[in-house]
Amino acid sequence: MSLTVDDVKKIAHLARLGIEEQDIESYTLDLSGMLDLMTQMSNLDTQDVAPMAHPLDQVQRLRADEVTEQDNREKFQAIAPQTEAGLYLVPKVIE
User: Fold this and answer.
1) CA distance 29 to 8
2) Which of 2, 37, 45, 75 has the fewest CB atoms in 10 Å of its CB?
């Protein structure tokens, strides 16, 4: 798919982008190239290709799920103005 200069100007207007007049021709060529690549990719047979979350086969390193602090809820709620059943009571702010 080949874009025209008018197409690029219209796209820039819709996206609220300011493009210098001397740069419009290069944007036209670049965007047309990208659309051509997308057209080529859509014509490929990808039926036997498994979807990937990431191109590299890596595993996320996670820290151990261990408790590192003591439970201070009773201590903190002892100084709170109002609590009930382990929850802090606050004034209603939305009618």
Assistant:
1) 10
2) 45
CA dihedral 37, 39, 45, 50 (to 10 degrees): 60
CA 65-71-75 angle, 5° bins: 160
Tokens of 33: 């190239």
Q: Please state the pTM of the whole predicted model.
A: 0.51
For 15-69, the DSSP string reads: TT----GGGHHHHHHHHHHHHHHHHHHHTS--TTPPP-S-SS------------S
DSSP state of 86: T
Average pLDDT over residues 51-70: 87
Here the tokens at position 74 are 């009773």
